[in-house]
Design goal:
The chain has 136 residues and is mostly helical. It has five helices and three strands, in the order βααββααα.
Length: 136
């Protein structure tokens, strides 16, 4: 391996990230190559970048937005990392709750239950009433 540098293809294989994804992460400033050949534009990565790529891969599989991945990688403070991750967890839990409510509503639509509505019919003396026939 030429002086411990991996081509983008080799790095993609090792990290299970596509070449296209690595290029996008480079353009976003999330995972910079160790070196870029000034003549060819080829990107080369170092073995020391593999753990960061694996963390990025795992976070993205968990639907963590790129901006939050960047925040997690940018800090050495475990508490700050935990806060970012906890915020994402709260959003996912809220989404799960909304999805569960939607699923329950759809199930009710598929199996309509008899209405529990009780209607009382009464006769009342005639009276004058006012009604609004248009909405302004």
């Amino acid at each position: 391996m030429r002086s411990q540098k991996l081509t983008i293809g080799e790095f993609a294989t090792v990290t299970h990230l596509s070449v296209r994804t690595l290029r996008r992460y480079h353009e976003a400033g999330l995972l910079e190559p160790a070196t870029v050949d000034p003549f060819s534009g080829y990107r080369y990565y170092g073995p020391e970048q593999i753990p960061a790529a694996q963390v990025i891969h795992q976070l993205r599989q968990l639907d963590v937005p790129l901006a939050e991945v960047r925040s997690i990688l940018a800090t050495d403070d475990p508490q700050e990392r935990a806060e970012v991750i906890a915020g994402h967890l709260r959003r996912l839990e809220a989404e799960v709750n909304r999805t569960q409510a939607a699923v329950a509503s759809l199930r009710r639509l598929l199996r309509p239950e008899p209405a529990d509505t009780h209607v009382d019919l009464r006769s009342v003396p005639a009276r004058t009433v006012v009604a609004i026939t248009e909405q302004v």
